[in-house]
Amino acid sequence: MNMKLVLASVATVVALTGCASTQVNYGDAQSVETLNKDFGSTDLQMIADKMVTDMLSFPVVVQLTQNRRPVMFVDKIRNKTQEHIDTESITDTIQNKLINSGKFRFVDMTAANAMADQLNYQKNSGLVNQATSVKAGGHIGAEYMLNGNLSSIVKNVGGKSDVYYKFTLKLQNVQTGIVEWTSEKEIRKSAKRSAFGL
């Protein structure tokens, strides 16, 4: 094969590969995200803001948190949509906002097994100085539980698509089972497919 032809072919491949590079930019994490109708970061932020604002302004919750910081835990939020949605991200954001409000304390049930393993290791492994080991039985019990659902209704007609999301959250007294507070956030998103499929 002609050496000039080989060099020209290599140069063409390199040039074409260079044209296919990806440019990455940082964006504002708080800006509205509207790439498609699927559940996204803006939806998560709107839900968290609405829930925390509603909860902290509810008269019963204001009274509960007036002179102390009640302890609560977050139960798993049930995803009843057809999408894969990380509901733990929603509850993490709500939990962070509630903790930072200074009104509540939380126990992390997702770490309960790891803490039990650590307590067992400290007590029974023979490797930990018992004068410095943590004693079992000192955990604080949660008084309240946050739990809820995320559901959706999707309609597709022709090139148009509409999705309605509803997020419901409840604050429940662990001892009595009474629901002390509940709220919901509704979101409707629509999309229209381009005639050219773009």
UniProtKB/TrEMBL annotation:
Transmembrane annotation, as ranges: none
UniProt protein name: Penicillin-binding protein activator LpoB
Gene Ontology annotations of biological process type: peptidoglycan biosynthetic process
Keyword Signal set for record: yes
GO cellular component: periplasmic side of cell outer membrane
GO molecular function annotations of the record: enzyme regulator activity
Stored Pfam families: LpoB
InterPro entries: LpoB
Signal peptide span: 1-26
Entry keywords, A to Z: Signal
